From TrEMBL:
Database matches in InterPro entries: Adenyl_kin_sub, Adenylat/UMP-CMP_kin, Adenylat_kinase_CS, P-loop_NTPase
Name of the protein in question: Adenylate kinase
Subcellular location(s) per record: Cytoplasm
Note on domains (UniProt): Consists of three domains, a large central CORE domain and two small peripheral domains, NMPbind and LID, which undergo movements during catalysis. The LID domain closes over the site of phosphoryl transfer upon ATP binding. Assembling and dissambling the active center during each catalytic cycle provides an effective means to prevent ATP hydrolysis. Some bacteria have evolved a zinc-coordinating structure that stabilizes the LID domain.
Gene name tied to this protein: adk
Length: 213
């Protein structure tokens, strides 16, 4: 399949806490294409209490990977939605080289945005992050201590994700280093990778990404 010229099919890769989610949201507005987070797809199924959600609940809460076949199917269904026809940004997939190889024929990324961060900064950012359980508004533990746990955007409850508790954080970071980092090498061999320093501020990282697109 040849892609229409100028179409962006971006993959965001980086450890948890690297700002991938935020960069995905900014890029989505900038490029007018959807950002699809496989973690969010999983959490939505769980919150809705669907059979699929029940089947992956244990892994997601424990910070473990859900089976490749499940995540691939979920993503392919989502990519078939109308809003993704002119391009997309994916956050959270591929997480393993096996997933990347399996997706070779249908994902066809045009660039892989790799946001790099040390474990130390990733842990401190993840421990501090909070989000609205309804609208995904992002905030921090400090802001909640100051302003309370009601979302200023939609009045939903601001919570800490279960997999952002210390034990699950370390498990997810270890998993990132051992199984996801090699995905960057996989795409590097195909000359698709652009690397960014995730310890810089959000606007700065965004400007650097926008510059290479
Ligand atoms: P995230 O929000 O990207 O940190 O993802 C949250 C959780 O969703 C992960 O810890 C996994 O349980 C699951 N998940 C998301 N993407 C994938 C994937 N590509 N492969 C397997 N599991 C995934």
């Amino acid at each position: 399949m040849s892609l229409p010229e100028g179409q962006h099919r971006l993959i965001l890769i980086g450890p948890q806490g690297s700002g991938k989610g935020t960069q995905g949201e900014l890029l989505s507005v900038y490029l007018q294409i959807p950002t699809i987070s496989t973690g969010h797809l999983c959490r939505t199924e769980i919150e809705r209490g669907t059979a699929l959600g029940k089947s992956i609940e244990r892994e997601v809460r424990a910070g473990e990977l859900v089976p490749d076949s499940v995540i691939t199917e979920m993503l392919r269904v989502r990519l078939a939605d109308y809003d993704a026809k002119d391009g997309f940004i994916i956050d959270g997939f591929p997480r393993t080289v096996a997933q990347a190889r399996d997706a070779e024929s249908w994902l066809q990324p045009t660039k892989v945005i790799a946001i790099e961060l040390t474990d130390k900064i990733a842990v401190s950012r993840m421990s501090a992050r909070r989000a609205c359980s309804q609208c995904r508004y992002k905030t921090t533990a400090d802001a909640v201590a100051k302003h309370g746990s009601i979302c200023p955007r939609c009045n939903g409850a601001i919570i800490q994700r279960e997999d952002d508790f210390p034990e699950a954080i370390q498990k997810r970071l270890d998993m990132y280093r051992s199984v996801t980092q090699p995905v960057v090498d996989h795409y590097h061999e195909r000359d698709l990778v652009e690397r960014f320093n995730g310890s810089l501020s959000i606007p700065l990282v965004f400007m650097e990404i926008a510059h290479v697109l």
